Amino acid sequence: xxxxxxxxxxxDVDFAQWYTDVVKNSGLxxxxxxxxxxxxxxxxxxxxENIQSILDKEFKKVGVTNVYFPLLIPASLFNKExxxxxxxxxxxxxxTKVGDKQLGEDLYIRPTSEVLIIEHFAKEIKSYRDxxxxxxxxxxxxxxxxxxxxxxxxxxxxxxxxxxxxxDPKEAKDLTLKMLQIYKDFATNHLLLPVxxxxxxxxxxxxxxxxxxxxxxxxxxxxxxxxxxxHYFGDNFAKAFNVxxxxxxxxxxxxxxxxxxxxxxxxxxxIMTHADDQGLVLPSSVAPVQIQxxxxxDSEEVISTSTNLFxxxxxxxxxxxxxxxxxxxxxxxxxxxxxxPIRIEVGPRDLANGVVTISRRDIRSKxxxxxxxxKAYIDEQIKEYDKNIYKIALKNREERTFTxxxxxxxxxxxDKKLGFVLVPFxxxxxxxxxxKEKTQTNSRCIPDGIKQEKSKCFNCGKDSNYKVYFAKAx
Amino acid sequence: xxxxxxxxxxxDVDFAQWYTDVVKNSGLxxxxxxxxxxxxxxxxxxxxENIQSILDKEFKKVGVTNVYFPLLIPASLFNKExxxxxxxxxxxxxxTKVGDKQLGEDLYIRPTSEVLIIEHFAKEIKSYRDxxxxxxxxxxxxxxxxxxxxxxxxxxxxxxxxxxxxxDPKEAKDLTLKMLQIYKDFATNHLLLPVxxxxxxxxxxxxxxxxxxxxxxxxxxxxxxxxxxxHYFGDNFAKAFNVxxxxxxxxxxxxxxxxxxxxxxxxxxxIMTHADDQGLVLPSSVAPVQIQxxxxxDSEEVISTSTNLFxxxxxxxxxxxxxxxxxxxxxxxxxxxxxxPIRIEVGPRDLANGVVTISRRDIRSKxxxxxxxxKAYIDEQIKEYDKNIYKIALKNREERTFTxxxxxxxxxxxDKKLGFVLVPFxxxxxxxxxxKEKTQTNSRCIPDGIKQEKSKCFNCGKDSNYKVYFAKAx
Lengths: 474, 474
Prior knowledge:
The structure is a homodimer. By secondary structure, chain A is an alpha+beta fold. Chain A folds into three domains: 15-274, BirA Bifunctional Protein, domain 2, CATH 3.30.930.10; 291-381, Anticodon-binding domain (Rossmann fold, 3-Layer(aba) Sandwich), CATH 3.40.50.800; 401-471, C-terminal domain of ProRS (Translation Initiation Factor IF3, 2-Layer Sandwich). An eleven-stranded mixed beta sheet of chain A has the order 3-7-8-14-11-10-9-22-25-21-20, sandwiched between helices. In chain A, 35% of the residues lie in helices and 28% in strands. Chains A, B: Pfam families: HGTP_anticodon, ProRS-C_1, tRNA-synt_2b. Chains A, B: Residues 36-283 form the Aminoacyl-transfer RNA synthetases class-II family profile domain. Chains A, B: Keywords: Aminoacyl-tRNA synthetase, ATP-binding, Cytoplasm, Ligase, Nucleotide-binding, Protein biosynthesis.
């Protein structure tokens, strides 16, 4: 245990405390002075930069262009779509004055930018030829929260919000699903989160949307975390904001819109899926440091070897040599807590044998590797590392995926072990309200790739048209 | 003149109207619903993305790490540094409630983040070993403005704000100047703005700083635009926020801080320096499209030639083929108004001779170039293009740089032609207030690289220790 680092509670003893300990000791974030806000320190922000960089390229491949819309939304504009304002009203941070001067109208800090962007679309599209417009912005948003936790729930968070407008409902719907697929591929292949995907129920869909699609990740403790959503609005917003265009038949028609978002919550998902009692375990794609080189002393031989190793790896990996005067043991602990995938220790005794010691963070291995083989060894081991942490997460999800046909069965499952529980469900909002009240759980999604058949709702017993995953969720 | 584009007023007839026309017709921005805010449309935001991408690499080369601090600052925190709050108080957008609930304390939307970051530094640094910390964030900030113009002055803008803390005042001062140099090199070499640099006078320095350094660009109309600033705070903020560390002699000492920022104003500087009566002229480094290929018809030969050209250029340039069904003439006009550096027209008559027609936006040339020579021709011409627009801007600055020794001389110069006027100046705030009142101009900087000698102040006649550039400014 390094100095200045407090002991991390075991995740099997107290998962919530474990999470707090890991977040604090790994140097990702600090708390901001306003309740519920957080400071992204360099190590935490670097993960977000890596997420942005990968996703931004994927967005651009499908023709999405980045934009920036203003932070503040006039109350009168927000109030135009009733479900939307009802959904957000209690969480809206409101600017009422500038200096000492009261404003004529309340201005909301954006909780999301649908209304600003749809109003802009109204000006931009006259004809079907002007569409689609595929916009995205990387911004901060605010939704005031009563209870907050770093990454999972904070009054301010960072995200991408995509907004598109189309002349054709099918094209809009396809885009909605396309963006969900980009999120799913990213979560699966880069964050190594074995997410499930599907449609949200009526109760859980986004305020103002016709359909909401989601990816859901299962945390180590068996709770679900919504990790990215994509919304098909149909012409709901277009009608509320009068967004019309002239179609190919020279007729006026309301346009079709979508939005999709993914936020810094994902960093919470990474932690609660992969981290362990020694600290973070970061997927190599988004790790700020993929390989850390630690020198046992500062002899000429050690320094020159670690410099050569650095030079041989830096074209392919994010490599860091900690040159501070912290102790060897401290540096080891820090690399572990920070979840650096691969650690190379360079010391005189090893060098006498022409080797260095390489550790993998996931399995905490220690392997002596000949200097000439280091690059090849790491190329292989970093792939194995990623495969292994995905496998562990998938195993957890599989061991925590259940079925139930009645509320009693459902409760019995959750009493034993939290997880995804597939149940036949009627889809009614009031029935889901009832489940929520009785069990503090709700639906996560109507999953893709599951055979859907008619049955009786697990709660109310009415006809059910599909099966739905319910779970306790963050 | 293409359809849907209004005529651009000549910049020699009405510079302000010309600016508005260019901004509007080139599709960079639109106005937001809250007065003084703006929407960055894809073409405008892409310029900012290019600026970010180049500068971010330069910052990281000197060890700067990106972070994200919260949007909202409690009033009690902001009020700790008196000069700072006095400087910003009237411009602060203030959150007073969430939903219907009044907050216990006013929260300001950041106009800049010094106070948040210095408070965080206080927690992070115990010893000289913990420094330097070199932080940067790319964010939105708000400073409520009475009169606003796109890019130049808006209530919300985007910028980088760097904040650093050091154990040694010389190191902090050196960093301040280093970051100014990065800004200057970037403005000169990438934006092709022949900026001058130097220190701000007492009156013009940043609220709370000991020293402020600036780069100033001269616009086509002879007005100056502050284009990037770097501030040395000494231990001013450290004292106000009690940021102490243990130095090498085991004694407590206040830390030394800096900050530096550059904003979307720069896009205004690019426009007002390089654009002309036909629209934008964008430096190739930051142009969203560097080469636009326009097909005269959609014959097989034309399409396949333009596709081949695209493929041969796309590894080195940002290339765009407009495949919309807009007319040929419209596409030409649009490429001109949008300031695309190089335009290639592909048509059957040219192809019969094995050539395409290539135009440079700056000199509006039209050159027939053999297909096999296109890449080499463009490699050369795009360099010439950048050189030429820099040369034109430099010529304007040189023709608008003057000297004066008395207020009468100064007024006489400005009556003839606006520009930078080098004057001996006492440095007193009250004297500069007086100049401002009499002439609506103020000092821009105490320039680097100018021989500084003792003289008499051009306004008050008292002893002057240095020469200062005064100018009318945006």
